[in-house]
Structures are given as structure tokens and as C-alpha cells.
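Objective 1b: paired records.
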Amino acid sequence: MIYQASFGLITPRISPAEVMRREWIGNAKRNAPGATSITVASMKGGVGKTTVSALLGLTLAQYRGDRAVAIDANPDAGTLADRLLGVGSTRPTIRDLLNSLDEVEAGTQLNRYLGLAGRLAVLASELDPAKSEMFNQDEYEAVACLIARFYDVLITDSGTGLVHSAMHGALNLTDGLVIVGAPTVDAANSAGRTLDWLAEHGFQGLVENAVVAISLDRETPDVDSGAIRDHFAERCRAVVEIPADPHLRTGGQIDLRALQQPTLDAALELASHVAEGFHHHSSSTLMKKAGLA
């Protein structure tokens, strides 16, 4: 408005926030070395892990030119597809895909098992708890390796347990890790134990390159959130705080257009840090396992 009103004589400076936002967008667009796997994890439920997975997937898909897919690998009937596609819709599940793995030879065949949230493809978890509990490491790896033939960025929303077989599959194939916590004593301790467990079981490299997402919708005045952020910043590559947002609090389908600007900025910052990690490996773990590298 100022530029137009002054007939082009006055060009306002770009604000520092906009400069940072443009930098994050540039980072989010970084090329991935073939199919790249990102796992979102936490030992504790109810800290916003699925919400973070959805925000990350939607944001990466929005800004990147390649193909992104979000996979719900939660063995406890996960809700990622509900957050991305809406509650109540009938959709194929990861179990349906597993039953037809040998029949999928083209991307068009794979897409029959995927929903679509904007530009983000979505693979739903099995809703039957009995079938979901049977989902194991070999099955996860088989699904991920198949999808890697047709998609470039895979975001896996894992279960809350680190010892579940499918979680081992995700960790074995992942190229980047997002740990979700909250600024409460129990959630912070849980996130810390998650990092400890990973480091003790041979995943120290993932820990050092991890991004910690702190969901602020459970923030309490008695806890110093700044101290929690500093603690994780010393252990991991980056920390991002996801602010409380009325749209996210409803628990329904996430629409980026309905989010407040600070939430959009936080999701973009998270996507930026995750994509920055792509340069830490010249050929992804998933590509090697799938025989594509």
C-alpha cells in the first residue's frame, strides 16, 4: 500500500520476520538424496506427536516440488488419517496395502491405498486393534521400501513405545528423527528418556541430528519452558516450539488455512530444520534398503 500510494518512490523494507520466513521456505525446499524417511516419535502419548506429524507433512508437501507421504505406523489404531483426511471416512489401511504388496507395480496402483490431504499423500493405520497389534518390523520395512519407489519424502507417525517391532523398522530405515515433547515435567522427562534410550541402543547419530518439537498446548506456569528448550538444544540439532492454537485444540481435521500465523511459522521452521538434515547423508538409509541406491 505504501509503495503504491507513493507511486513507487517508497519501498518498505522486508521485516526481519519475513526474512526468516523466506529462509525457512528455502531450506524446506532442499533437495533430498532420493527417498528420505523421517520418523516422528515419543515415549509418551498425548503430547501432540500425531499433530506434529500432520503439520510437518502438510508443510513439506506445500513447499516442496517432490512427492511426500505421511504413514501412520501406530500399532494402537492411530489417528493421523483422521487429522489429515477427516474423521469417519472409509479408507484403505496399511494392512490392505500389505495384503496386496505383490500386486503393486506402479504409482497409480499404490495411490489406490493412499488418501490425499492437499499435496500430501496419507497411508492410514489399521483401525482394528487386533490387526494393528500384529504390524511388525518386517511389514513396516516392506511397506516403506515399496513406497520409496514412488515417493521422495516419507513421514512416519510411530507409536508411543520404542520397543514395538514396527518402531524398530522405522528407526532402522529413518534418515531423520523428530522427538515430540511438551513443557511439563513428565513430558520433558519422557522426551529425555526417549533420547537416552535411542543413544543407548545404537542411534546416537540420530539423536545428535534430531529435531525436538515442543508442543505448548499443555504449558504450565510452574515449569520453565525456556530451560527445557535449552536442555534439548544442547543434545539435538534444533528445537522448535509449536504454540497453542484453537484450531489444533479441536482434534479435528487440520487445515493450514485455519491456523494462526505463529503456528504456521512454527510448522515452517520445523520443516526447515528437518529438510536441513537431508544434507547429512549422501544416500538415504531407506534407498539402500530398498535397493534403489
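Objective 1b, second protein:
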Amino acid sequence: MLSVYEGFFSGGARIVHSDVVLGLVEGGQQDHRVLSIHGEVHREATRQRMEDDACYRSLTAAGVGVTSLGRSFPASRDQVGFTGPELADTARATAEADVILSLKEQPLRLLNQAGLPRRPVVVCLHRSDPENQGAALDELKAAIADGTVVACVCCAESTRAAYQAAGVPGELLHVIPNGVDLLRFRPDPAARLAVRAALDVPADAPVVIFAARYDAMKNVPLFLASARAWLAREPRGHVLLCGAGMTRANPGLVADIAAAFGTDPLLTDRLHPLGVRHDMEHLYAAADVVALTSSWGEAAPLCLVEGMMCGAVPVATDVGDSAAIVSGHGFVTPPDPDAIARAWTEAVTARSDLAPALAASRERFSRTRMIAAYAALIDGVHTRATLPPALPDPL
């Protein structure tokens, strides 16, 4: 198996895909390698080197070979097309694979290059807005038309519906919902106290966590406007922000905070931008509410699942499959700061009452279930690819 990544940078899709690869390797039935087009990415006001990424480190620690074409993103002028050496490296990697997994549709611009060994490709789709994926959607359709892409894994029903509406044949679209490691993501009273102590947050203070990269689709200004409204009405409340670009070193975030809290700067004393963290299970356990304010693009937001499994009540805007994930466990809100702030307060109050429903839903979001479904799909693709061609019907 070969997985092709656009690059290693902070984001839920890479976390999920890397965890799938690790799970399939743990099963012992498949051998996996990873090829990354970019060796470093500059985005969310952060330089993200492949070797520093938590997913890269997890994969290599488990013995998964990871190589890169060594590109930087954004690309320089001489990196518009792929060079001969890059295509040679890709050809060697693909020749050794029986099946190729493409993390989202963007790597297809590489895999669609002429002259590469022909292998069945499974594309893993993690968004609900194909219309915003630029030329990548055209690359996906081209790879389907020539028979290279034989299946697409959708992490949500909203993903399947959106890509089918965009012209991808429905029979190629298979829904495998995201899952998480239930041993890692669970309520943890000791971690809850430790994180709060480290951040100087009282043990009984209400806490909201926002786990997202600094990106327009996450609607950070809406989140910050909601945070201002909530902190003003909750004098003991605290808000945590985690993800790439969620630090005061990001001028964009600093400007957004100033715009949201302009007349109430003292409220920002209880706003904690923490950046990229590798102990998210502890931060979720420390929170009472996990918030999502995205405007578009989301499919099955990983933050909602991880936060729920750690005991935080999810409060989300109605985007992608968020409403289905939250149903019976939390609250769906309109994109209005006051409505969101009221929902956070309601979620804090209802946390104890919702705890049994959150606990009962754990198996639904199991990593084991997710990996078993991926394994079955990949095995089926491989079996079909190795079947002898059908004989013509006798006259």
C-alpha cells in the first residue's frame, strides 16, 4: 500500500488518515508506505516541516516508511510542473504498491501524470465542498474517467452527497465515518485538573475549547465574537484556542482578537491561544464544551468527535455532518454570536445530564470500526485488481 499526501501539516484529515494507516499496519495484513509531495508547508502563519509533524513522527515510529519529493508550499515559480527526478521517485514508489490511497483529491495532480505505473487508486475525501477544491475536482473526474480511481472513501454522508452532486458516480462513493482511539480520548479527571492548573484556570470554572487551524472556513471571527459575548456573561469562564496559527505570533489572529474584544480588552485575560498541541485528549478533558463555528467545507469534524469522547459537550454550526454528530449529545446553533454564547452556557449546565448519552455513543465513534471498514474496502479493491480478465462469451 502507498498513501500519497499533499504534505504533512496540522489538520483533521491528516490525523485521521495517518491513524488509519497505523491501524492497518497494526493488523499485520498490509504493508504501508507514505509519499508526501511537500517536505514543508507555510500556512496558517506557521512554517510546518514534515519532520516536526506529529503524524509523521507516529508513522515513522511504527516503522512506516515516509518519503517526500521535497517541495515547499507555496511553490516557487519553477515548481509548477513535476520534474523528471520527481516523477522517477513517484514511479518507483507506485511500482512497489498494489493499491494507492490518495489523501484527498489534491495528490491526483501527481498521480495523473503520464507514464507512471498503473495501480488502482482509492481517494479519501474529507470535505463537503468539492466546488471549492479548484482544479483538484477536475483531476478527480479525469482519474475516474480513465479508470485509475476505482473507489472514493467519504468520511461523511454530506461528503458523498456533495461529490455525487458534483458529478462523481455514486457507486464509487463509500461512506466510512471518522473514528478515534477510545483508549486515548476519554474523560480523564486527573488530566482535567492538571491542564487547568497549568493554565491558571480554576477547577470549577466553565471552559470552552476551540480546536481548529486559522483558516477562513473555520470562521474564527464568529468564534471570537461568540467568545466575547460568553466571557462577558460568564465572569469565571475561560476559552482555549488550539491549532495551527492559533497563537499571538499570528498577526491575523491578533487583529481578529482586537476587532472582537476592542471595547473589552480585559476579557482577553481569559482567552488562551495555545497553538498546535500534541496532548489534545488532555485539553478536551479539561473543557466543558467543544465548539465549532465553521461556515463551509466541514464533513465530519474530528474536533467534535474527540471532544465528545473526552466528555465535552459539542456545540456546532450546521455544516457538513455536524448536526448528525451532535444530535442527542449537544447543540446546533445558527451563525450568531449571541445564540452561540447562550448555547455554550446551556451546554455547561447540561453537561452532567448529557454524560450518559455521550458515554453510550462511544462505540459509534470507534477507531476499530473505522479501520476495519477501510481494510475491507482496500482488500476488495485489491482482489478485484488481481482477478484474471473475464473471458468473452462464446458465440
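The chain has two domains: 2-179+366-386, 189-365. The mean pLDDT is 95.
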